[in-house]
Amino acid sequence: MSFGNIIGGLLNQGMSGQTHNRLRSGAQNADRSGGVEQMLGSFLGSGSGSHGQGGRGLAGMAKDFLGKEQVGGMSGAKIGGLGALAGGLLGGGLGGAAKGGAMAVLGTLAFKAWQDHQNQQGDQAPTSGQVEAMTSVATERLVLRAMIGAAQADGHLDEQEMEKILGQLSNDEATQEERQAVRQEMSRPVDPEQLGVQVSRPEVATEVYLGALLAVDINTEAERDYLQRLANALRLDRGVVERLHGLTESPAP
């Protein structure tokens, strides 16, 4: 079971009026600040959650996209690897199962923010198991739940809208089991505190919070309260939260 393609569908559809702007801004800002090429390569290489396409899944299809000529004879990688991948995700240029590239974009942005904060604090970031933890099916489900909880807070995504998004995914992109799991998540309120209990790694917590941040406009008290409760439940340092908001050009927490 994998939820990467469903998350990609949600981001492509736009869970709030600011979803596309924030994801695009985050990718462009990360590209400009540098140091994301190796991170992105690691997340693409993880290839988690592949459906169809001969098993090539995320890694093969996203790398194909980055390698092809996109604008003015330049490849996606030359334009800006993360920015090009985010643009392809939002514009439909990745197509099909490569919507799973959403987890590569989210993972790279979250890890960039978390690692930069660690470096600023003078802390030595752990180096083992990060990508595997951030691309696991368990993490995909946590990200999805955080996004659904955010949508419940602002009322932008109801069961009818979710069915519309699921209907745009082929059977190769989302199995019936995955679709049913999403419906079950939509049918019950998301408790940020219970969600936080299931997250033990700070880099995963950063990715989960980022998913929720992309899902709301942050223009109501309910949205701000949800994000604050989620950050507290995930035990995120204030500096990490501020860095995520700055990277995606979101209102200050």
Automatic annotation (TrEMBL):
Cited Pfam families: DUF533
Domain of life: Bacteria
Region (Disordered): 38-57
CDD domains membership: terB_like_YebE (cd07178)
Residue ranges, compositional bias (Gly residues): 44-57
SUPFAM superfamilies per UniProt: TerB-like (SSF158682)
Protein name: Tellurite resistance TerB family protein
